[in-house]
Amino acid sequence: MENNITVDEYDSWLILHRISDLITTYEKMVFSDANVTAQQFWVLMTIALLEGEHKNPVTISDLVPPYRRKLASTSSIVDRMEKKGLIEKKIRDLPDRRAIRIIITEYGYKILKSASKKRIKLIKDLFICIS
């Protein structure tokens, strides 16, 4: 098995990393202006999308596959978001009494709307140089 890569492959890999770092840096700036972290934004976005798509209550375990985090990590993020007032947890109102329904608060929707506008501007600004 060959372990060597070409200079072009390595250069391409470095460019991809630089692009990823730039996007992460800009997201942190944009989302901090909206009073939310990038993680919190993506969780809010995922909850909103799942609510609209399934028309069913969203649980913490529903967030694990699209968010690509472990259940414990996702639960920690959700706990911090609840303390911040972005979401509410409704316990034991689902058929599975162990499940916890998550809903976005009015404040959470306000933050999501603000951050989404800023994210769209970020995307447009990043791609303005590409024809």
Secondary structure: elements and pairs:
Layout: H1 7-33, H2 38-54, E1 58-59, H3 60-67, H4 71-84, E2 87-91, E3 100-104, H5 106-127
Antiparallel strand pairs: 1-3, 2-3
Helix pairs in contact: 1-5, 2-3, 3-4
| Structural domains: how many | 1
Query: For the residues shown, what is the average pLDDT?
Result: 84
How far the N terminus sits from the C terminus, by CA atoms, comes to 40 Å
> And the CATH topology?
Arc Repressor Mutant, subunit A
Structural class: mainly alpha
Annotated CATH homologous superfamily = Winged helix-like DNA-binding domain superfamily/Winged helix DNA-binding domain
Which consecutive residue ranges, at least 5 long each, have pLDDT under 50? Answer: none
CATH C-level name: Mainly Alpha
- Helix count, per DSSP? 5
Give the tally of β-strands: 3
Rg of Cα set: 18 Å
Strand content: 5-15%
**CATH architecture descriptor text:** Orthogonal Bundle
For the largest beta sheet, what order do the strands appear in spatially? 1-3-2
The helix content, as a percent range, equals 55-70%
Shape assignment: globular
Order of helices and strands: HHEHHEEH
For the sheet with most strands, the description reads: 3 strands, antiparallel
